[in-house]
Here is the input.
Amino acid sequence: MSWALRFGRALQASLRTLASYLHAHPELDNIKLFQGEFGFVTAENAERTVLLAERFGFEFTYGRAPGLRFWQAGFWENLGTWLMLKAFNTASLETKSFTRLVRAQVLMTRATLMKRYGPEADAAAQPRP
Here is the structure.
């Protein structure tokens, strides 16, 4: 539990830092969307991951698990993710089956970032991890 609290606070701090940086650099005003990809979500924990991502202001979508369909790009992306988990976080593989990994898109608009984490954001409106 303490790890989750530290993670939530660190994520909020990172998002506030990003919002402050964007606010201070008007030459970056053309950036309207931030996108990332998770490769460690399983079909079993997808709903919980979506709820957590939304709590911080992210939009989250995920596709089908490619399973063992090696002709799909997702298979190779998942293989890379699985190998990194095996190298750096072996314990997590106890709950993550290679064939159940899904690719998940994480999005946040600039407007959402600035509203929630920008310099004018109300500190009381920040989500509590």
